[in-house]
Amino acid sequence: MKSKTTLPFMIGIPALIWQALFFYIPLLITFFSSLLHFTEEGLFLGFTLEKMALFINPIYEKVWFSSFCLALSNALICLIIAYPLAYFLAFTGKRFKNILLFLLIVPFWTNFLLHVYAWFFVLEKEGFLNIFLKSIGAINEPIHFLNSLFSIMVMMVYYYLPFMVLPIYFALERFDHRLIEASHDLGARPLQTFRRIMLPLTLNGVRAGFLLVYIPSFAEFVIPELMGGDKQMFMGSVVSHYILGEKTASLGAAFTVISSLILLISALFFYWLLGYLFKPRKSNA
């Protein structure tokens, strides 16, 4: 009997070891690297907050604000697109549901750089988008979409959208559709049904999807670098700049720690805010 209860734990031990070695220990190394103080000769002098204090600067505050706006915009746009899409997959797709889910997931089977280069061909001056806009008479001269905030947002939404769709879809899969019919029978309008019944009951899926998009978007480095042409600085860009430097790795660790605290606080705030906005409220009647 004892072996049956310990078997699941024994199976999970390799995953726990892997997580400790490649997640928790690197986090601890990063944290302590931001606090350790050495002389130029390599002598240990103790712990200091001087490295972190260097980043209390309007320049870096602007970087954090830009990263916050990028992550929040991406999460909100993905949420607006993903909820109707997940609803369609859960309730309307029916026999084509598995095919549609397959089409949603299949881009993850290809290399990420291929996705970026594919969007290059779409957004470049002689690309598909400019050709299409010219053909319908919307523009006379090609628009330079690349190396702009627009191209960054297009790529961000494209790449992170499945992370928002899937949690909401699984929440809607467990949703009892008879509740919608009951709401309509009681005289509720569609918007009231959506606001008071569907959203509260799928809140866990919305929260999970929002955080799955918001958190990695805050520290995104590759997409702004490739699609934005390195014209704007975001958190990931600053971290890579310091970490890859010969003598600035500890500064990169300090910046990472501060950025992680900002990310954690903002993520917890949005977790609470989504619950506050979408939780069911008692009727005054």
Q: What overall geometry do the principal axes of the alpha carbons give?
A: globular
CATH topological fold name: MetI-like fold
**CATH C-level:** Mainly Alpha
The string of secondary-structure elements, in order, is HEEHHHHHHHHHHHH
Span from first to last CA?
55 Å
- Number of helical regions: 13
Helix content: over 70%
Query: Average pLDDT value?
Result: 86
In summary, what is this structure?
This protein has helices at 2-33, 50-53, 58-92, 97-105, 112-123, 128-135, 149-173, 178-185, 190-201, 203-218, 222-227, 235-243, 249-278; strands at residues 36-38, 44-47.
Account of the 3D structure:
With 285 residues, the protein is mainly alpha-helical. The protein has a single domain, classed as MetI-like (MetI-like fold). The chain has a two-stranded antiparallel ribbon with strand order 1-2. A hairpin with a 5-residue loop joins strand 1 and strand 2. The termini are far apart. The mean pLDDT is 86.
Lay out the secondary structure:
Layout: H1 2-33, E1 36-38, E2 44-47, H2 50-53, H3 58-92, H4 97-105, H5 112-123, H6 128-135, H7 149-173, H8 178-185, H9 190-201, H10 203-218, H11 222-227, H12 235-243, H13 249-278
Antiparallel strand pairs: 1-2
Keywords:
285 residues, mainly alpha, MetI-like fold, two-stranded antiparallel sheet, 13 helices, 2 strands, globular
